[in-house]
Design a protein that fits this description.
The protein is an all-alpha fold. Helices cover 70% and strands 0% of the residues. The protein has a single domain (21-464), classed as Amino acid/polyamine transporter I (Up-down Bundle), CATH 1.20.1740.10.
């Protein structure tokens, strides 16, 4: 954080014009972390749905694309660092909007707890395998990594995006090379492998309908985070970029997931991949690459973890900034560096997971509880995406019949996305452990009583917001009462 000269006032707004479309796309893809997502979820998908992973990627991708289109429409109307919180507040009720904002901040924290838990052992497994289980080293490595990505984020959004761009280029150069090596092995008859099949893109490749549904639930978690760019909406060169970036990133991730999953799952029998579900990518890399190159693939996954960790810090800090600006959270969260980044929000988001990691490493019971809590991320994503889709259709309801574009992009597609996600949620509940369901329910609903307490204690003008409804197409005259 830069030192201010005497008499130099502290900035009060985020840095406008700092992020362009490419930066938004990188932020969105980084927050999905496709390499990490596949490494951690493909084994589970194979276990419940067989070889239907590519089909699941397409189904979930379609649902996410529908919601991304809704986010694009809402961002055109109201670009805001608090994103969904302000959209729901201005279309439904302020109480619900604040509750959604609290849920976003909880989700980013939960996700980073999961990220930081795997970071230490993962890096040590690459550079110092004999000490990969050393808890002191695990914490030290994780703390240094978190401090590093937080420092870059505090230095400025441009520095953060530039860092993420470097990570993305390195990661995907390695991962594309890895995919080529897998294909070569599969087409030359590597022991235990097979040629990827187009049948895997059909629902009939699933072991059962129930298994297919469970696989789709896992797939939602795999896609989570594509909306990252909307939280940078006040730092854009043009207000259209965050929504476009969300749509582009969903399309890219859908294609990438479907192709890479089909290639990886062809390299070995499904039961062997399931046995190595803790990191399928590392297992597959060791089958086709010599030691140093296999370690390089693991390093690419590690880059993905680093990138998503920083991206989640940005989410927490921007939403915290937007809500604190409305007088709903401590004013300290609006404090900006001279680079116009919310440094207290970034620091807070970095400290919480590192502090919890100490307890995680020191107590096995707490570790198990935290693992169940991190499993709530998928449910939280579903709740947030449903809230965004509903807010879009509700806000634009009066103009849906005016044009085919309005009906399709603000009505039909968001509704399809919402229905798919609600179906997935209902189907997931019976098979989700109580240790995950209970905290998920708490995280989803805790925002409402907290919002009421904030209203009673602050009397913020935010709570006087009246619901708005669109009277014109987005980008024309954006809102009417």
């Amino acid at each position: 954080m830069s030192v201010r000269p005497a008499g130099h006032t502290e900035p009060t707004e985020l840095k406008s014009g700092a992020v362009a479309l490419w930066g938004d796309i990188v932020a969105a893809v980084t927050n999905v972390a496709p390499s990490t997502a596949i490494a951690l979820t493909l084994g589970a998908i194979l276990g419940v749905a067989g070889h239907a992973g590519p089909f699941i990627a397409i189904v979930v991708g379609v649902a996410m694309l529908c919601i991304a289109i809704a986010y694009d429409r809402l961002n055109l109307w109201q670009p805001n660092a608090a994103a969904q919180a302000m959209w729901v507040a201005r279309t439904v009720r302020p109480i619900l909007g604040l509750a959604v904002g609290i849920m976003v901040m909880i989700e980013s924290t939960v996700s980073n707890i999961a990220n930081i838990v795997v970071f230490g052992p993962y890096l040590l497994g690459v550079i110092y395998p004999s000490q990969a289980s050393n808890p002191v080293l695990q914490w030290l490595v994780s703390a240094i990594a978190m401090a590093g990505v937080a420092a870059i984020a505090i230095a400025g959004v441009r520095a953060a995006i530039r860092f993420q761009i470097y990570l993305v280029w390195l990661e995907y150069v390695i991962m594309i090379g890895f995919a080529i090596a897998l294909l070569y092995a599969e087409f030359t008859g590597h022991s235990g492998s097979q040629v990827p099949s187009l049948a895997w893109f059909l629902p009939s490749s699933a072991s059962s309908f129930g298994g297919l549904v469970n696989g789709i639930v896992i797939g939602v978690f795999m896609f989570g985070g594509w909306e990252s760019a909307v939280y940078l909406a006040e730092e854009q060169e043009t207000h259209r970029d965050p929504g476009r970036a969300g749509i582009i990133s969903v399309i890219f991730c859908t294609v990438w997931f479907a192709i890479l999953i089909s290639i990886i799952q062809a390299i070995a029998p499904a039961d062997q991949l399931v046995k190595n579900s803790a990191n399928v990518i590392a297992y597959a890399a060791n089958l086709v690459l010599p030691g140093p190159l296999a370690a390089l693939v693991s390093l690419a996954v590690l880059m993905s973890v680093v990138g998503v960790t920083q991206s989640q810090l940005q989410v927490f800090s921007r939403v915290g900034f937007g809500l604190a600006r409305e007088g709903l959270l401590p004013k300290a969260l609006t404090r900006l560096t001279q680079a116009q980044t919310p440094w207290i929000g970034l620091a807070t988001a970095a400290v919480i997971p590192i502090a919890l990691l100490i307890i995680y490493l020191a107590n096995a019971s707490v570790a198990q509880a935290l693992l169940l809590v991190t499993g709530t991320a998928g449910i939280l994503y579903i709740a947030l995406y449903v809230a965004g889709g509903v807010a879009c259709t509700w806000y634009y309801r009066r103009i849906l019949a005016r044009s085919f574009a309005s009906l399709m992009y603000a009505g039909i597609l968001p509704t399809i996305g919402v229905l798919i996600l609600l179906f997935v949620l209902v189907e997931a509940i019976p098979t989700t452990p109580l240790g995950t369901l209970i905290p998920a329910a708490v995280f989803v609903f805790i925002g409402i009583p907290v919002a009421w307490l904030v209203r009673i204690s602050t009397h913020a003008k935010f709570f006087d917001i009246k619901p708005e409804v669109a009277t014109e197409e987005p980008g024309v005259a954006t809102a009417g009462r």
